[in-house]
Prior knowledge:
Layout: H1 6-9, H2 22-44, E1 55-57, H3 61-80, E2 86-87, E3 96-97, H4 105-110, H5 112-118, H6 120-147, H7 151-162, H8 165-170, H9 182-192, H10 199-236, H11 242-276, H12 306-312, H13 329-345, H14 351-368, E4 372-375, E5 378-383, H15 386-389, H16 404-424, H17 429-443, E6 453-455, H18 461-464, E7 477-480, H19 490-500, E8 514-515, E9 524-525, H20 531-542, H21 550-563, E10 565-571, H22 583-594, E11 598-600, E12 603-607
Parallel strand pairs: 7-10
Antiparallel strand pairs: 1-6, 2-3, 4-5, 8-9, 10-12, 11-12
Amino acid sequence: xxxxxxxxxxxxxxxxxxxxxxxxxxxxxxxxxxxxxxxxxxxxxxxxxxxxxxxxxxxxxxxxxxxxxxxxxxxxxxxxxxxxxxxxxxxxxxxxxxxxxxxxxxxxxxxxxxxxxxxxxxxxxxxxxxxxxxxxxxxxxxxxxxxxxxxxxxxxxxxxxxxxxxxxxxxxxxxxxxxxxxxxxxxxxxxxxxxxxxxxxxxxxxxxxxxxxxxxxxxxxxxxxxxxxxxxxxxxxxxxxxxxxxxxxxxxxxxxxxxxxxxxxxxxxxxxxxxxxxxxxxxxxxxxxxxxxxxxxxxxxxxxxxxxxxxxxxxxxxxxxxxxxxxxxxxxxxxxxxxxxxxxxxxxxxxxxxxxxxxxxxxxxxxxxxxxxxxxxxxxxxxxxxxxxxxxxxxxxxxxxxxxxxxxxxxxxxxxxxxxxxxxxxxxxxxxxxxxxxxxxxxxxxxxxxxxxxxxxxxxxxxxxxxxxxxxxxxxxxxxxxxxxxxxxxxxxxxxxxxxxxxxxxxxxxxxxxxxxxxxxxxxxxxxxxxxxxxxxxxxxxxxxxxxxxxxxxxxxxxxxxxxxxxxxxxxxxxxxxxxxxxxxxxxxxxxxxxxxxxxxxxxxxxxxx
Length: 610
């Protein structure tokens, strides 16, 4: 509910007909906000637009290659009747359980025609830009229709949340976490359950939204459910709201029951794969201590902002994609001041909402700090509440630092309600100037700048021309050198090109994915390495040429037979996501292992017979 005190701006009965120009004014505002959101999103991703296939996001080119592959495979699975949640095109001979990965199935299916038309890299860019724009507009829409009283409040809140540091950081190739538009849609669905007698239709709609959210960002869906539980639980326990909560509870619970049935019906198979299917795992290969938010990060500035460009950015995140809080000290001070002012001016019946906002911000801030205190990069042994949760199911598959992404929208809502309050009861001129100056100091440094991008090796003509089909049997295995991993993602890019250009299928023995085999039965990135791929990756990274023995050659032949490889391919240029690839050393060592290669088109090829 809006927080503006009734004494200052009491609820006005809705007119049976809106004032003249009311609808057209709102439509013009909606259009203007949408255009601003699209312009801002295009600005952030502008480094990719000149050449989507030839440029990569510098700090996370591996995830970009993965999501491009997911889009290509999803389109291929749709048009060839294959399983969108499990594939044998990677990780031969075991395959990959995509249901426990971020399969973005809805995106892959909806954008399949575009993927076939313009290719997976360009489709990736369209979705990434659309995610940013839709997040800003989605929050503006929810605020303007349900949570705020004034248009300026909704505009400020929507644009702040949509281009907040956490969302922009995850625009470094994360099609799941940059899809922040999912959250306002879910909240809209939850709020609809309060309507008397509408629990069936509301539950049906929310069930569909839950299924969509699970497909695109299951971890984000989990965090949204937690946030709703904390917020609405705190609100309902307030003495001033208990009677209202009891009145809406029966229909609300019925609606949630319908939601669960609809979502389960739509997600039964991927949920089975997720928890009981082949190649599943428990937890992830990521350390929750490393991937926890540094306490000081909340007051720090992120790298891809005006403040970061001015040299005020920090390296308190484990990597630039995980700058999940980074609100800056001025904004923290401003948010606290806003909460204090709102509390002092709020009517008693509105303080339940303020209390719920404050409690939710505190809870998710502390949980984002992970199992142990970390501050200014220093790890301590001081335990935190997350240590009690980190081993529970679902929690053990989430990264605690990303819980900070719940805090930012709550801060945006506080800012929006403060604007409502200032418009309803304007303070003295000096106070208004002070508030505007404080807001400028807090918000302007957080304005985003374009993501860093760089050139990446092109897909070789050997692939783009379809020449590979002469050396790989139907459904056979081709492996690039070095084998495909998050550090060397070219194999998935080649595969994505072949799938999205209807060339047919070839399989690869490794890949960038989450699968079993990590410590303590947890997940890991890629398969458990064998001797040959470990050797070749080391050569690719260091450029060293170790002496090759007959035992090494025998092991290589055995490994290639295990993977059922038809052809081993080395391109003239190979993209490494974290280090340059030493192509010459790779060719020399592979020649020692397998014998002389043949030159085919623009690659070196070792054609194997089994």
